[in-house]
Amino acid sequence: MAKRDYYDVLGVSKTADESEIKKAFRKKAMEYHPDRNKSPDAEERFKEVNEAYEVLSDSNKRATYDQFGHDGLNSQGFHSEGFDPFDIFNQVFGGSGGFEDIFGSFFGGGFGRSSRREYEDEKDPDILVAISISFIESILGAKKKIEYNIDSECNVCHGSGASNDPGSIETCNQCKGSGYVILTRKTMLGVMQQQSICDKCKGQGKIIAKKCKECNGKKYFKEKVVETIDIPVGIVDNAKFVVKKLGNKINGKRGDLYVNVRIVPSAIFERHNNDIYVIVKVDPILAIVGGTVQVPTPYGIKNIKIKPGTKHDEKIVVSNHGVKGTYGSGDLFGVIKYSVSKYDSKQIDELKKFAKTTNNEIEKYIEQARREIGE
C-alpha cells in the first residue's frame, strides 16, 4: 500500500514550523496510542504518526522529503522497516512507551501495566557507527572497509549468563517468576495499584544462581569485526543508512548496522544540492584568445573549449556532471579564475608589443574621465 503524505498524516501544512509539527504530533500520538485507542488500526496509525514526525522534525530529512518524496528518503538510507514508533514517542513525551507512563507523569504514579519495552533485553541488537569518506566517494559511491566492535553472545551459555550446571537458573522469589510486582498505595483519588518491573530480576522472572564461567555472567563478549559496506551514490553529509544483519549477535540473531556518514570537505569541489562547483584555473592570455581548458570533475578531467574574451569569475557549465540522482543528474559549474602566470623575458617582450596596441575602450574611458575632472 502506498505511503500517505507525511504532512497529511500529522494534519499540518507544508509551511508548518517546528512548534506546529511538534504540537500536531503530540495530539495525534496521544489519539492513536495503542494503550488508549483500541481500534484495530490504532497501532498502524500510531506507527505512521511517529514515522512522519521523525522525518518532518529533522531538517535534513524534511528537505529531502520535500524535494524527492518517499523515494528520496529511501535512497538516503531511511527505511520504515524495523522502525519502532515508541523511540520517537519516548523522546517527545519522556516516558518509557506506555500511555500510563504519561498519565503517571502528571499524577505521580503509574496506572495499569508497565511498558512492554521494559521487559526487553537491555542489549540493543542494532549498532550505530560513524565513518568519514572523501567528497569523491560521496558523489560516486564506494565500497568501504570498516572495523568496529559488536556484542556477541557467549557461545557457552548462549547469552543466558548462567552456567550449564543444573539449578543455575532459579525462579525469582520476589516476583514469583512474573517479572513484575504490584505496589498498592493510597492517593487523593483513592487506593491505586502500580505495576512495576521487579528490581531483583529486572523483569526476567528468573535469576542466575551460578554464573557462566566463560563470560562470568556477562552474557556477551566484545568482538572486533571487519566488514565491507557499500556507500550510496550521492549521499549527503551527516546522513544515516542501514546495512542489514551486521549488528550485535543477540539471541541467535544478528542486528542491523546503522552508518552515520561524515564527508571530508574537498579542496576544489563544492556541492550545492545536486550541482557541483569547481574552480577552473585559466591562463589570462588563453582567456583572451579562447581555447581549450582542463576542467576537474568527479568523473575525471574534461577538456572544455572557452570563447575568446572569457572573463575572470565567469561560469562555464558541464551538463550532467553533478550528483547523479534518482530524478536526474545535476550539473557541474566551472568558475574561471585567472592564474598568476610566469613568462620568460622573451615572452614578456612579445606581450609588451600587444600591450602598446591602441585599445578603443580604454581611450574612450580616459577621455570621459578627463572631461569630468577638467583636464
Let me know the number of strands: 19
From the alpha-carbon coordinates, what is the Rg to the nearest angstrom?
32 Å
- For the record, give the distance between the C-alpha atoms at the N and C termini, rounded to a whole number: 82 Å
- Helix tally equals 10
The biggest beta sheet, please?
Answer: 4 strands, mixed
List low-pLDDT spans. 95-121
What gross morphology would you assign? Answer: elongated
Structural classification:
alpha+beta
Average pLDDT metric: 83
Strand content bin: 25-35%
Can you tag this structure with a few keywords?
elongated, 375 residues, single chain, four-stranded mixed β-sheet, 19 strands, alpha+beta, three-stranded mixed β-sheet, 10 helices
Walk me through what this model shows.
The chain is α+β, with helices and mostly antiparallel strands and 375 residues long. Helices cover 29% and strands 30% of the residues. The chain contains 10 helices and 19 strands. The strands form 8 sheets. Strands 12-13-19-16 form a 4-stranded mixed sheet. It has a 3-stranded mixed sheet with strand order 1-11-8. A hairpin with a 2-residue loop joins strand 4 and strand 5. Helix 2 runs antiparallel to helix 3 and helix 3 crosses helix 5. The longest helix has 17 residues. The radius of gyration is 32 Å and the shape is elongated. It starts with 5 loop residues before the first helix and ends with a helix. About 7% of the residues have low confidence.
